[in-house]
Amino acid sequence: MAEAVKLHVKKGDTVVVLAGKDKGKEGKVTAAFPKKSKVTVEGVNQVKRHTKPSQSNPQGGIITKEAPISVSNVMLVCPSCKKPTRIKKVAAGNGFVRACKKCGEVIDK
């Protein structure tokens, strides 16, 4: 099994997509998968699934949902300066927090 990698984004962060068919789109991270180095972003990389009728979905049909994309294809959007940015680790208290490289504002409150 692959080792879990420390991701630069967390669930709830706003990110912009850097590569792929949804390049330039912005959305919120709905799920993070560190072992696979992937994240699911709201409204990005939508795929259609054909489902058979079941008890929970008696009609069946085509369902649209978001598929995970590589974490290397997304960049965090700073909540204070509203620009896509890399992060830097800043010592705070007994650990480290994420901070914006452009404006220096702490992202993790």
Give an overview in words:
The chain has 109 residues and is mainly beta. It has two domains: 1-52 and 60-76, SH3 type barrels (Roll); 79-108, no CATH class. 0% of the residues lie in helices and 41% in strands. It is built from no helices and nine strands. It has strands at 14-17, 26-33, 38-41, 46-51, 61-66, 69-70, 74-76, 87-92, 95-100. Strands 6-3-2-1-7 form a five-stranded antiparallel sheet, with no helix packed on it. The chain has a two-stranded antiparallel ribbon with strand order 4-5. It has a two-stranded antiparallel ribbon with strand order 8-9. The chain is elongated, with a radius of gyration of 17 Å. The two termini are 33 Å apart. The mean pLDDT is 92. This is Large ribosomal subunit protein uL24. It comes from Acidaminococcus fermentans. Pfam families: KOW (PF00467), ribosomal_L24 (PF17136). Part of the 50S ribosomal subunit. GO terms for molecular function: rRNA binding; structural constituent of ribosome.
